[in-house]
Amino acid sequence: MAEAVPLAGVLGRFGSKVTLDESAADMPCLWVPPEALTELCLFLRDSADLQFNFLSDICGVDFHPEEPRFLLVYHLASIPNHWRLRLKCRLGDPPVAPTVTPVWTTANWHERETYDMYGIHFDGHPDLRRIYMWDGFDGFPMRRDFPLRGYKDEMNPLGATRRDDGGRA
Amino acid sequence: MTEVTTLQETPTDSGYAREVLMNLGPQHPSTHGVLRLLLQMDGEIVERIEPHIGLLHRGTEKLFESFTYTQIFPLTDRLDYLCPPSNNLGYALAVEALLEIEAPIRAQYIRVIMAELSRISGHLLITGALPMDVGAMTSLLYTMRDREMVMDLMEMISGVRMHTSFVRVGGVREDLPEGCEERILEFCDIFTHRISDYETLLLNNRIFLARVEHIGNITAEDAIALGLSGPNLRASGVDWDLRRDAPYEIYDRLDFNVITRADGDCYDRWKCRLDEMRESLSMIRQCVDQMPAGDFLVDDPKIAFPVDKDLLAHSMETHIHHFELAAYGFKVPAGEVYQAIEAPKGELGYYLISDGSEKPFRLKVRSPSFVNLQALTERTTNMRYLADVIAMLGSLDPVMGEVDK
């Protein structure tokens, strides 16, 4: 993966919408607004020069109390070219992003996990339900204002007490 | 509590439901852990599969955020609990990338030996368990017997059989004990014959073959779109192995073949792993052969404990560093890195965001089993009957510790 990924075509095509993150050290990184995400992903996958056909991972990040609060990080790989690429997408609160399941099937469970853990809603996802936590679970555990031990209830006597400020414990 | 069941039984004209819902697991021997499958059945034909996971969810990623970088190692052990050294290794590489340090060469060899040993131990389970799931009972007894040899080696190296936590940021905890290299080579010699034994037992076994050949085929395009990795991807004919294509540690010094198969059926996924064990053996032999003498841990008192424990009794400075390191951990420069390694199950990725403190701001695990298990929900050709689902599940080889994190 030593060769530089030829991203000039992408940056030219999407103009000011997609920007290159100069600070990225381990792999190239693009900033993309949510409205351009699906189009960019389709282009990255289908472009004959790039062929980013493999979605490694989708990661949610919560920067509470900073604004914009949420960040989505996509890690792509191009198996034919042995390249990697990172996409970053900032989201406000409440967080909504378009789904990339039509682009890569594997995104289905990754997005369900991100929804389950961060409450990020993926527009157009075929089956957006919780995946780890049970259906009746209240809250999104990976958010930074969710207490480490969870909230106190009959099943969890050691949990934090709910307060109006979001129950930070 | 809301209704968990999401599939609906459909009444038909004749007044009774032709399609039935069936619950497989979470306590079922062939789910290898706590996996619950909800199956929509038409007679014995499976219409839809819905895995319900999360029964082993321990909130590992949440815990990461409140643990120091050293404390995280035992947590990574418990992801893919069949192959803890691989999990340790991937995590250590991610932290080392942000610290901009590299483990000494000897430590890299020790890590690779352990990772490959654990690959054998992980693959041995499926080599025996998939045939057992589909009716060829005996194989598991043999593979578990031989897995003991790997466990013994792990115990000899680290003192622990399963959750070794042997890797440290900047190296490994200790040097290999005396006589270990001979024991490893002895194991390689014995195990070469054992692989042939499995082949004799299973390659022409009609009970086994009838249940796995041409079952659950996944094409190369589907496999890539599904994000499959590791042997599951290579069984579909995609030549992609991070040990060769994005080498880390000393893998670029080793000579090995990447095993690929053509059909992507259950048999290929199983056979791919069987053949990979041979490659692993060859890699271990090369490692023992090439391994130089030298340090096994970086000489940096701010990151690693002192190698010379006598210094603790004589040098005040060492003592202070040791205390600081044990009590508060070390700081990692702010930044981010995605480090992927070829774990036995596939691409194991750690995405680490550091804010410059002693604890990670965010550490995401891209666990291969989680992604691989998703393939079960897809309509693959030649997976019609309930019995095929068991073969498919077994051949995808998910480890629930890693699926549920």
Task: Please describe what this structure looks like.
The complex is a heterodimer of chains A (169) and B (405). Helix content of chain A is 19%, strand content 22%. The radius of gyration of chain A is 18 Å and the shape is elongated. Chain A has 3 helices and 7 strands, in the order H-E-E-H-E-E-E-E-H-E. With 169 residues, chain A is an alpha/beta fold. The mean pLDDT of chain A is 86. Chain A has a domain at 8-123: NADH:ubiquinone oxidoreductase Nqo5 subunit (Beta Polymerase, domain 2), CATH 3.30.460.80. A 5-stranded mixed sheet of chain A has the order 1-2-5-4-3. With 405 residues, chain B is of the alpha+beta class. Chain B has one domain: Orthogonal Bundle (Cytochrome-c3 Hydrogenase, chain B), CATH 1.10.645. Chain B has helices at residues 60-64, 72-77, 84-99, 105-133, 138-158, 180-202, 206-212, 220-225, 231-234, 242-245, 266-290, 311-314, 316-328, 368-373, 386-396, 400-404; strands at residues 19-24, 36-42, 45-52, 167-168, 171-172, 335-343, 346-354, 362-366. In chain B, strands 1-2-3 form a 3-stranded antiparallel sheet, with no helix packed on it. A 3-stranded antiparallel sheet of chain B has the order 6-7-8. A two-stranded antiparallel sheet of chain B has the order 4-5. In chain B, strand 4 (167-168) and strand 5 form a beta hairpin. The interface between A and B is large, with 38 and 44 residues.
